[in-house]
């Protein structure tokens, strides 16, 4: 069948929904492929001059009106209307109502999914101050009176780390002993023998 003949055979309502569904679907798929392969966030909210970061998601909130969620709305608005027409509904307000409800549901679902995915991200930057007050095991002997560095192992920010440590104790703290982290000075833990 010829494409122009097929298009001419459609009702106005079908043409409207096809005109919304196809471009929205193509753009959504392209954006999804870019996001999954490049790991980039392709949402851009706002206008005007902008230097630096072009991600549209700033903060921890759920962005209902992002590019992805609006594309999901348009995509399901179009396909939902076409499905309603295919099932025999030809009244414009009925088709539009079904399309609108499906579009809103999908827009909210898409916003929720990307919100949950963003919550899984972490910067990976370790904050050494989180070690203060923690118990650690001496990995390499820590020389007395800050005369040199030793190493301790501890769980910090959900990961098992080996870090440099010094002590003000008057005796060396041998491997296998437990210590308490008192403070962090220049990225080196200051510890004392666990009492």
* Cα distance spanning the termini: 86 Å
Question: What is the domain tally?
Answer: 2
| Helix coverage percent | 40-55%
Strand adjacency order, main sheet: 1-2-3-5-4
> Beta-strand percentage?
15-25%
Fold and architecture overview:
There is one protein chain. With 195 residues, this protein is an alpha+beta fold. It has two domains: 3-119, no CATH class; 128-193, OB fold (Dihydrolipoamide Acetyltransferase, E2P) (Beta Barrel), CATH 2.40.50. Helix content is 42%, strand content 18%. The chain has four helices and five strands. Strands 1-2-3-5-4 form a five-stranded mixed β-barrel. The chain starts with a helix and ends with a strand. Mean pLDDT is 82; it is low at 42-59.
Can I get a quick summary?
42% of the residues lie in helices and 18% in strands.
Explain the layout of strands and helices:
Layout: H1 3-9, H2 12-38, H3 67-86, H4 92-119, E1 135-140, E2 150-156, E3 159-167, E4 178-185, E5 188-193
Parallel strand pairs: 3-5
Antiparallel strand pairs: 1-2, 1-4, 2-3, 4-5
